[in-house]
Amino acid sequence: MKVAYHPNFIKQFKKLSSVLQIEVKEKIEIFEENYLHHSLKTHKLHGRFKKDYAFSVNYSYRIIFRIFKDEALFLEIGTHDMYR
Question: Whole-model pTM?
């Protein structure tokens, strides 16, 4: 699946440690091959995020995205605190 990046996502990504950035890039590669890969734990969100999905980078970090036909727009990256 193609991936596009919202400016907020890019800002948040740049603030991550270099080690975490590498981990994120690895997960994005998996996502591009199969966005439903079991290691990503992709799931639909609810409430104010009801149009969005998320997947796990690691135990703490998630990426929130929205699907438009054959493209995913990465909206945010962060911990569970971003859901508040």
Answer: 0.93
